Amino acid sequence: MLLVGVVIGSKTDEPLIQPALDMLRQLGIEYELSIFSAHRNPDKVRNYGSKAIEHGIEVIIAAAGAAAHLPGVLASWTTLPVIGVPLPTSELKGLDSLYSIVQMPAGVPVACVGIGAAGAKNAALLSAQILGLKHKQIKDAYEVYKRKLAEA
User: Fold this and answer.
1) Predicted pLDDT at 91
2) pLDDT tens digit sequence for 48-59
3) Per the structure, how many domains does the chain have?
4) Cα separations (Å) of 49 from 22, 60, 88, 96, 117?
5) Neighbours of 96 (CB within 10 A)
6) How crowded is residue 40: how many other Cβ atoms within 10 Å of its Cβ?
7) Range of the domain at 86
8) CATH of the domain at 99
9) How many Å apart are CA 112 and CA 38, to the nearest integer?
10) Among 70, 67, 20, which residue's Cα sits nearest to residue 49?
11) Cβ neighbours, 10 Å, residue 134
12) What is the pLDDT of residues 67-97, one digit of tens each?
């Protein structure tokens, strides 16, 4: 069952979001990866955000660099939780993305994780925590992950 929508703004962002995809797979969470630019494909972003619930998606992870509008634009079109991942794709090494994502206007919340690979992985883990409230199998997988983390 598809539960997480992972959206990136460009094909070149795929290696940067890979830690999230790997973690989702490790936890047994089904996801889809889509590529839509908030600037170049605004109608596709609107359509995706407004229809995500109908497709069974329960959490959206949106990764973007530079101005990083993608997470906020998606959040404006859905009531699902949106987790923004700032990507280090500019001269500012992701700080611009971080500020864009965390400074959302009141009424359009976007959760924000750290910049880059660690942030991408944490976005998947945060998704697991959210989904674990409803899906026992995901909760159990996340608890196993946490136990192994504590043992390391």
Assistant:
1) 87
2) 999 999 999 999
3) 1
4) 23, 9, 24, 23, 24
5) 18
6) 10
7) 2-151
8) 3.40.50.1970
9) 17
10) 70
11) 10
12) 789 999 999 999 999 999 999 988 899 999 9
